[in-house]
Amino acid sequence: MTAVKIVFSSTTGNTEGIAEILEEEFQALDADVEVIDADDDVDEDVFEDADVCVVATYTDGDGEIPFNLQEFYEELPDIDLDGKVFGVVGSGDSELYPDAFCQAAIDFEKAFEATGATKGADTVKIENAAEDDDIDTLKAFVAALL
Ligand SMILES: Cc1cc2nc3c(=O)[nH]c(=O)nc-3n(C[C@H](O)[C@H](O)[C@H](O)COP(=O)(O)O)c2cc1C
């Protein structure tokens, strides 16, 4: 069974909802999924026993990584994830932040690229909370990662 770990950061619930959709879709495809809230501290070795590594993050400030993911973000490029697959989902607001839409997700993708992991799917950028239209995109994202 493919082991999947989803690390998410969320303040108002949008990204948490996205993480829940991802969890359901991975389970529907018989993956073994664990969801980790960044509020509970993200250990440097969080992805050690995962085949598929997922980060779901909102963007804070003006294109900034959420406070509770900053330490992990800085550590990530130095973590060896060779042989694993990664994917990133972002939630952001393109109307209020057109020049920094989902910047944290874009930055996480770059950090993952330094780990030796393979990008299994294009980074998904969701406008605030996931709507019905986004479900198909998230389903395709999950299927591509497995
Ligand atoms: C203070 C603040 C700063 C934000 N900065 C950005 C930003 O730079 N880029 C972006 O795309 N969205 C930005 N947003 C929008 C949030 O990322 C977006 O609403 C997201 O869905 C929140 O996710 P959450 O409900 O999981 O906390 C910002 C929101 C707040 C409140």
From TrEMBL:
<keyword id="KW-0813">Transport</keyword>
<dbReference type="Pfam" id="PF00258">
    <property type="entry name" value="Flavodoxin_1"/>
</dbReference>
<keyword id="KW-0288">FMN</keyword>
<comment type="function">
    <text>Low-potential electron donor to a number of redox enzymes.</text>
</comment>
<keyword id="KW-0249">Electron transport</keyword>
<feature type="domain" description="Flavodoxin-like">
    <location>
        <begin position="4"/>
        <end position="146"/>
    </location>
</feature>
<dbReference type="InterPro" id="IPR008254">
    <property type="entry name" value="Flavodoxin/NO_synth"/>
</dbReference>
<dbReference type="InterPro" id="IPR050619">
    <property type="entry name" value="Flavodoxin"/>
</dbReference>
<keyword id="KW-0285">Flavoprotein</keyword>
<comment type="similarity">
    <text>Belongs to the flavodoxin family.</text>
</comment>
<dbReference type="InterPro" id="IPR029039">
    <property type="entry name" value="Flavoprotein-like_sf"/>
</dbReference>
<dbReference type="InterPro" id="IPR001226">
    <property type="entry name" value="Flavodoxin_CS"/>
</dbReference>
<dbReference type="GO" id="GO:0010181">
    <property type="term" value="F:FMN binding"/>
</dbReference>
<dbReference type="GO" id="GO:0016651">
    <property type="term" value="F:oxidoreductase activity, acting on NAD(P)H"/>
</dbReference>
<dbReference type="GO" id="GO:0009055">
    <property type="term" value="F:electron transfer activity"/>
</dbReference>
<protein>
    <recommendedName>
        <fullName>Flavodoxin-like domain-containing protein</fullName>
    </recommendedName>
</protein>
